[in-house]
Amino acid sequence: xxxxxxxxxxxxxxxxxxxxxxxxxxxxxxxxxxxxxxxxxxxxxxxxxxxxxxxxxxxxxxxxxxxxxxxxxxxxxxxxxxxxxxxxxxxxxxxxxxxxxxxxxxxxxxxxxxxxxxxxxxxxxxxxxxxxxxxxxxxxxxxxxxxxxxxxxxxxxxxxxxxxxxxxxxxxxxxxxxxxxxxxxxxxxxxxxxxxxxxxxxxxxxxxx
Length: 209
Description:
This protein has helices spanning 21-27, 46-49, 79-82, 117-129, 186-190, 195-205; strands spanning 2-4, 8-12, 33-37, 60-65, 68-69, 83-84, 87-91, 103-108, 132-135, 146-150, 154-158, 162-165, 180-181. It is an alpha/beta fold and 209 residues long. It has one domain (2-205): 2-enoyl-CoA Hydratase, Chain A, domain 1, CATH 3.90.226.10. Helix 4 links the parallel strand 8 and strand 9 (132-135). It is globular and about 60 Å long.
């Protein structure tokens, strides 16, 4: 955690743990905005952060579809008669703690970093207060991991359920789509700059937002 120029807080979700969330909000209580760096793999903090960003209770954060087999063998008939796909909603938990009123943005990036739980964290913050995404589209691979073993001792891993935005918009194979798209450049890397973070600060300082 650190304070950026312009009274903007910065939290690296790769290192921020659940037991640090309350201290983070206290440190950034009077800031104009917070940048959550999600170009990593978070530590399960979505369920602690999101409730502090909304006055609404039990907000839907994600729509989940899960295919359930109805018979142990193939049997006869089409796939619809052999399985069912229930839909349920994951909600932001209730909190009695004070709410942060500043703006929030999340840094995302298109590679193996912002994936799975990183994308799920984005869904929670998006649903809480409309957190804006800055960077490039993410991996689009969220939905837990289902495993099974085939002959020869080979283990197969795949996404076991469908995850969508709260209102049903597709996430898998699409990813979190940035509100402001910016990608690191070779020139910026050579100069030691974080162009994605710089663009986020510029966005937050803009009078248009």
